[in-house]
Protein: Ferritin-like domain-containing protein
Amino acid sequence: MLFDKLETLDDLLLICLKDLYSAEQQLVAALPQMAESAKDGRLRRGFERHLRETEEQVKRLERIGNDLDLNLTGETCVAMEGLIKEGQKLMSENATEEVMDAALIGASQKIEHYEIACYGTAAHYAERLGYADAAELLRKTLEEEQFTDTKLNELAKNYLNKKAE
Structure:
């Protein structure tokens, strides 16, 4: 347990930031396997691009931690852990290439939606608390996550899901 008692919005922000830091580190470890499992070149390149972006997002979180004098280590994001395990289970299934790619997009969008919710919440807390620089960095990452979700959605709807039928 991180706190004996949650008392302030600062406490909640710290929980959010620790959760995001753990989530992004787990994703950095998982994305290479997702890229390797993707058969469609556009999907594979998307995962590779998102890995580089996620590495930058980790650096942003570290900057926020340094700026606010917070230690973001020591917690495990169990939600991301579960989402990644779910994706790994899908990747172990015997599936056609087309169905696997569609499954990877679905698993990825679950991850993106989780991150969108977390970054939106953390950005609001930071803004409310007057941490303008932190809020700006969190909003930048939020926009990246939303963009990634949109791209995944377009790839699924306009191309990969049709191939999987």
